[in-house]
Amino acid sequence: TTDGSRVYLGGSFTSVNGVSRRGLAALEASTGALAAWEPSASAGQVDALAYSGGWVYAGGNFDAITGSNGLVSQRFAAKVSAASGAVDSGWAVAPDDRVRALNVAANGSGRLYLGGDFTTVSGRTGTNRLASVLLASPGSVDTTFRAGPTNGTGYAPIFDLTSDANRVYAASAGLGGAGAALSATTGAALWSAHSNGNMQSVRLL
Hints:
Strand order of the largest sheet: 13-14-15-16
Number of helices: 0
Strand content: 35-45%
Shape: globular
Largest sheet: 4 strands, antiparallel
Distance between the termini: 21 Å
Structural class: mainly beta
Mean pLDDT: 96
Low-confidence stretches: none
Radius of gyration: 16 Å
């Protein structure tokens, strides 16, 4: 959370500190004690988390996240209350494959960047491997953002994302791998640096 009181975890685990937790968990930051927050991932793992405005956003290869309210998310992407663990089923972002990276847009636009193996999000064009969606329900795709190539001229799976006010930066796979920069508003490719192996992580200093 933004006040530093909790740490949210995602992965392929089925328990934390000996207590059942499936793919998602929260710990009290000061003590490491397991919090009473237990949304559950099914048939897959959580690869990425992001936080904004009291909500935890999860991405992965899961079939669904079931919340404390009994509501169930879409596949591959979910929005969950950071306080109660309830799923916002109205947030209907629908990638057609795994989401490996999430980043809240640093430009204050109320957008969330998704990166991964998918070729479309919610059936929209211009969402190959990278998309921008609304943080708020219904999670509509930002159609002004049309992702450019992430590895030279290729659209490679994305493993990590970060952003600043003007650009979104991607670490990707492909024929070797690449680090790339794209416009934070239009998605236009600005540059890419090719590597001889997958790039797994990217951060701004």
